[in-house]
Design a protein that fits this description.
Helix 19 runs antiparallel to helix 20. The chain contains 21 helices and no strands. By secondary structure, it is an all-alpha fold.
């Protein structure tokens, strides 16, 4: 039975990361709902146990958020702004995914499943064609290159965490190289900006003391020589890098998103308390836009604007409060532990969310749940009721 549960769980995670590949090439449009339903059926005992588990501040603030979201959902259904089934599907999916994975007892096994799912997506990208004939951009198991970038960034962070477990340098370098190669061809400027900031953050947080010890005149001279040698190669010959340089100078998509964001601001003014309803942003964009909005820019392309416009003021504030609690709980402990790399995966998802409408995406809540799981483990280990809390997972 345990093997069956693990297979279904892995299938669920693969479907989160490779949703379009499964729907378009393998199992059809209802496959994701069937997989999620099968997951609930097979794991019903664990799901119930998760909801009955001990609560910490992260879980409590999440419940506040989901309660307000459910309340607004039913009011929007009564007022005719939202279909009941659509709203229920969104709310139930977020609730089950976040709570279940927050309490999942074997975090390392879960991380390996996510890591392998991202590897599958990256391998798929090697066989995909560019999204259109004018672009070099290639995606993986999901059709959106920016969402693909979220998966790759999270996969990189999880890969570092797991490397500390398996210590296989060649596996680590091989998968990291695959993820970086795929990330370049995904062509997301936001992802590249985050990667640069993340590297700087990692150096400042994790390696400052190392740099002080190892940096010397010889090391600096060696780095200078390597740097000069690298600059001698014309990287613009590489199609992806040449295309990325062209994208960096083209701000057309950014201007289109600004138009959509301005429409979202007007949307929130008219629907401040209840919002326009879950996933109803795109239906209202042209109504509130001052300028012409292209078909591809009707979506908000921002998790925060989407949440505010669709769910209203109180749900939005509860969402921010939950994120604040998640990111600050046990911050110092996480910073100095192996869980640092899981927090980096969460930062990647939130940073990419500035240009993505992933507020209700199940993989987004799965990534947030990884950090929540780590915080729960830290809190349980430090609590007076340690034996009782650990017994919950037995």
């Amino acid at each position: 039975m345990r093997l069956l549960k693990d297979i279904v769980l892995f299938l669920l995670i693969v479907s989160f990361i490779n949703d379009d590949f499964i729907v378009d090439r393998i199992a059809g449009e209802n496959s994701l709902k069937i997989i999620f339903g099968l997951f609930i059926l097979v794991h019903i005992q664990e799901i119930i146990a998760s909801f009955a588990g001990p609560k910490n501040r992260v879980i409590k603030t999440f419940y506040i958020f989901i309660f307000l979201m459910s309340l607004v959902l039913f009011i929007n259904v009564i007022t005719g702004n939202l279909e009941l089934m659509k709203g229920l599907q969104v709310t139930i999916a977020i609730l089950i995914v976040f709570v279940y994975f927050s309490y999942y007892e074997n975090l390392d096994k879960l991380l390996y499943m996510i890591w392998f799912a991202v590897i599958i997506s990256a391998i798929i990208s090697l066989f995909n064609e560019p999204s259109d004939k004018w672009s070099y951009r290639i995606s993986g198991g999901t059709n959106d290159e920016n969402e693909f970038s979220v998966h790759l960034l999270a996969g990189m962070s999880i890969g570092v965490y797991l490397f500390q477990k398996h210590k296989n340098i060649w596996l680590f370098l091989g998968t990291s190289g695959l993820f970086l190669y795929a990330l370049i061809y995904a062509g997301s400027r936001t992802a590249m900006l985050f990667l640069a900031l993340a590297i700087l953050y990692i150096i400042l947080v994790k390696f400052t003391f190392v740099l002080k010890k190892v940096l010397s005149l010889k090391v600096l001279l060696g780095l200078l020589i390597v740097g000069i040698a690298i600059t001698q190669y014309d990287f613009s010959k590489v199609r992806a890098i040449k295309g990325f340089q062209e994208r960096a100078g083209n701000l057309g998509t950014a201007q289109e998103r600004f138009i959509s964001w301005k429409a979202g601001a007007r949307m929130t003014q008219d629907n401040l308390i209840l919002g326009v309803g879950a996933d109803n942003y795109a239906k209202n964009t042209r109504k509130y836009a001052v300028d012409y909005v292209a078909e591809g820019s009707l979506a908000p392309h921002n998790i925060f604007i989407k949440m505010f416009a669709e769910e209203g003021f109180f749900v939005f504030v509860a969402f921010l409060y939950f994120l604040y609690t998640l990111l600050t709980a046990d911050f110092r402990v996480i910073l100095e532990s192996e869980y640092f790399w899981l927090s980096l995966a969460v930062y990647a998802a939130l940073f990419m969310g500035l240009t993505l409408s992933i507020s209700y995406e199940k993989y987004f809540w799965l990534i947030l749940a990884l950090l929540s799981n780590a915080i729960l483990k830290i809190d349980f280990e430090g609590s007076e009721d340690k034996d009782e809390n650990i017994a919950h997972f037995a």
